[in-house]
Amino acid sequence: MAEKGDAPAARVVLQQCLQARLQVKPAGDQSEAQFVQIDRGMVIYICFFKGATDDMMPKMVSALLNLRLCESDSGKLVSVLELPGSLLIVPQATLGGKAKGRAMQYHNNISKEDGLRLYGAFVSLCEEELRAGPSAQSGAEVTVKHGTYGNRQVLKLDTNGPYTHLMEF
Amino acid sequence: MAEKGDAPAARVVLQQCLQARLQVKPAGDQSEAQFVQIDRGMVIYICFFKGATDDMMPKMVSALLNLRLCESDSGKLVSVLELPGSLLIVPQATLGGKAKGRAMQYHNNISKEDGLRLYGAFVSLCEEELRAGPSAQSGAEVTVKHGTYGNRQVLKLDTNGPYTHLMEF
């Protein structure tokens, strides 16, 4: 977690879900919209700031996926890797907003090119960690789904308690 | 917005919605669960820290409700008061969490009694502002709904883009 006073390089909002469904391709003239969906697990909304680096990604992914934020059937708090839970990763540049008067400004957000690269790396590492995690290894059907960077994130969320958490790195 | 380095007294996550539905009373032995619902508008997840005061509430509510975060039908960014939009307020103590190792700690969260009082004041002020705002005054059907402090927040969210924002005060 970024220390108080340090400007963060990444901001993440986490919500628990029973089911979540995200549009990954809007409808076109000749095509229907496309969606991805997870069942029980965690939605990760992520935003990178200027200064975010590839080097941060492994530590960040490990921290997020190993935090005990998820309520197991027995009521115990476990990580999403242990739940077993799936992941829905949602790029969310708006999280970098800072209010100036009545408007939001996004001056500290990373450039689109760097953000796209870091987002890809983040998603890949989440896939690796989930695949190597205890739930996947014991045969649970867990998966990583993710939104398309730069798109509008059309989302349906169904939760028994979002237990919304903020993490900065 | 709290300045960098100041510990915030309140943390708020905002999401835009087409529809949102929240349980306000769980099912009992003899009774069904009760829900509240809004259509287009904004979901406000709110958490108070130690040091939050009644004096902060008017400025906070005014800032949140007047921020231009909502996409109007014409694509212009307007406030939820102008949209016209409704509000769903969700108490969310987990937002105060700070990671220590793999566990989340909530040591800076306000006491339950103070939190309950501030939450009530926050909801009342939101109702007042919405009622006095341009949409309600011109006859739009906008409303404030809110969750029960201390309950599990069973939620369904449907959004065309949550445009998740973080605000600290």
UniProtKB/TrEMBL annotation, chains A, B:
Homodimer. Keywords: Cytoplasm, Hydrolase. It catalyses: a D-aminoacyl-tRNA + H2O = a tRNA + a D-alpha-amino acid + H(+); glycyl-tRNA(Ala) + H2O = tRNA(Ala) + glycine + H(+). Its EC number is 3.1.1.96. GO terms for cellular component: cytoplasm. One of its GO terms (molecular function) is D-tyrosyl-tRNA(Tyr) deacylase activity. The keyword Transferase does not apply. This is D-aminoacyl-tRNA deacylase. It is found in: Cytoplasm. Pfam families: Tyr_Deacylase.
